[in-house]
Structures are given as C-alpha cells and as structure tokens.
Amino acid sequence: MKTLLVVDDEVGITEALNDLLSEEGFHVLVASNGKEALERIAGRRPDLILLDYMLPVMDGRELLNALQSDSMLRDIPVLMMSAIPRSSLPRDCQPRAFLRKPFTIDRLLLEVGRLLGGPAKP
Q1: Is there a smaller number of Cβ atoms within 10 Å at the N or the C end of the chain?
Q2: Residues 6+ positions from 20 with CB-CB distance below 8 Å
Q3: Could you list the residue range(s) of the whole structural domain that residue 32 is in?
Q4: Is the distance from CB of 66 to CB of 34 less than 8 angstroms?
Q5: 120 in a domain, yes or no?
Q6: What is the dihedral of CA 59, 103, 2, 75, to 10 degrees?
Q7: Structural domain contains residue 102
Q8: Which CATH number is 107's domain given?
Q9: Which residue in 21, 46, 88 sits closest to 98, CA to CA?
Q10: In the chain, which residues have pLDDT < 70?
C-alpha cells in the first residue's frame, strides 16, 4: 500500500483528499504545515507528497527546499497545489508536478498515478 502525505491548512481539503485517496487504496497521512509534515515524514516516509503552496509556520516552498536539500528525502515526488499559477512560483520552488486549484478529482488521480509510476489505484 502506497503512503501519501497531504499537506494543507484547509481542513475541508485535507478531509476530502483523505477520504478520496483512502477509498482509492492509499494510506494517507495529513499535516497542516511544513513543520508538521517533516514530523510525519520522520515517522513514516511517504511515497508521494501533495503539498499546498501557501501554509502557515513553514510554507510549501520552504518544505520543498528542505526536502530537496536532504539526500534521504529529495527523491520523494512532490505534487504542489495552489490557486496561483505555476509560472508565479519562485525560481527555487520547482516541484515535480503542479495542480492549480480548483482541480478535478480525475486530474488529481491522473497526476498521482503518473508520479507513482502507474495507475492511480495501487
């Protein structure tokens, strides 16, 4: 079973993604900011991180940079989600994939499957 980490400070989004991805057969971890995400990663390494760009405490850019600077974590694929366009992200914020909010369930599952190297269902 693949483990996904959803990092978003909007409870409605984390609950919806948790429900959807759990129904798809994934083990889902949730964090509300980048600092909490690093704590979750220390406890269980995810196969994929779904990361909101705008977060309190430690934002998506800071978490992505922390992951990319750690040789043990840099290979975890990151799917960043944001209402801002990808072209507006800073140069030092280049996730493996990007979804602009709002996105469809089909698009999300397609990206998750692509990043995990197969169909969305594990």
Answers
A1: N
A2: 105, 108
A3: 3-115
A4: yes
A5: no
A6: -50
A7: yes
A8: 3.40.50.2300
A9: 88
A10: 119-122
CB 48 within 8 A of CB 77: yes
Strands 78-82 and 97-100: parallel
Quote the tokens at residue 23. Answer: 């129904």
Residue 30: inside a domain: yes
Most distant CA atoms of the chain, gap in Å: 35
Task: Give the total number of structural domains in the chain.
Answer: 1
**What pLDDT does 119 receive?**
57
Answer yes or no: are the C-beta atoms of 89 and 103 closer than 8 Å.
no
Which amino acid type is present at position 28? V
Which residue do the tokens 């602009």 mark? 100
- The first and second tokens of residue 80, run together, are 């960043």
Query: 66-89 pLDDT, tens per residue?
Result: 999 999 999 999 999 999 999 999
